[in-house]
Every structure is written in structure tokens, then in C-alpha cells.
Amino acid sequence: MSDCLFCKIIAGEIPSSRVYEDELCYAFYDIDPQAPTHFLVIPKEHIGSCGEIGPENAAVVGHIFQVISRLAGELGMESFRVVSNCGEQAGQSVHHLHFHVLAGRDMTWPPG
Ligand code: 5GP
Ligand code: ZN
């Protein structure tokens, strides 16, 4: 999608600090980290949010969670949180599906 920030990051039009990449997804550090380790994992295919996941695109979500699990092991993250904000009230500011992966500090529950 031409006016999507994360599609531009995937295309390399906007620089980012890459954590991992394969044919289906891209992981990069958040520009405004909310924990000592905070990266985002996004599908390369443009999906607006969790609210747009259906039979036609659900496989990439399972793939992303496998990638998160592998990266957590490689980065030595024993405890971490995965968050996906869906919609304005939940705090979604970029309308391309993304999973925040946060680690390295105590997390509150319920989240604020
Ligand atoms: P949301 O608020 O939609 O759940 O998460 C969007 C995230 O994208 C935010 O945590 C924000 O800091 C991050 N972000 C916004 N613009 C950029 C950018 O240009 N580069 C990177 N690396 N992260 C960004
Ligand atoms: Zn996009």
C-alpha cells in the first residue's frame, strides 16, 4: 500500500533497524522503545490490523509467532510480552498489522 509507513519500511524507502527478515515477514526495532528490548514483527503483505485476519491471510500470523519464538530464544529473552493494538481506542497508530515484542523490564497487568 503506497501511503503505508510500514510498507515503506519493508520496501526500504524509510530506514529501520532490522532484527530479522524472510519472505513473509520483517522484524525491526521500534523507534520509540517502551522496554529495554522492543521490536515489531510485521507481515510483508499489507494487512490493516488483527481485525482483517481471515482464512486467506491467517497463515502469516502463525509464521510470525514462530519467528517471535525463535528470536526470543536467539536473543535470550526468557520472559517477554507480545501485543497487537487493533483500532484507535486500543492505541493503534500505524494501520499495518504489527506485533510488538517487549522484554527486559517488569510488565504491568492489566496494561494501561
Ligand atoms: P501502534 O501504536 O500502532 O500499536 O504501534 C506503532 C509503533 O510503531 C509505535 O510503537 C511507534 O513507536 C512505531 N513507529 C512509528 N513510526 C516508526 C518508524 O518510522 N520507525 C520505527 N522503527 N518505528 C516506528
Ligand atoms: Zn502496509
Automatic annotation (TrEMBL):
The protein, known as: Histidine triad nucleotide-binding protein
Stored SUPFAM superfamilies: HIT-like
InterPro entries to which the protein is assigned, alphabetical: Histidine_triad_CS, Histidine_triad_HIT, HIT-like, HIT-like_sf
Coiled coil: none
Superkingdom of the source species: Bacteria
Source organism per UniProt: Intestinimonas massiliensis (ex Afouda et al. 2020)
The HIT domain, residue ranges: 5-112
UniProt motif (Histidine triad motif) ranges: 96-100
An example Gene Ontology molecular-function term: catalytic activity
Record-linked PROSITE patterns: HIT_1, HIT_2
A Pfam entry, by short name: HIT
Catalytic residues, chain numbering: H98 (tele-amp-histidine intermediate)
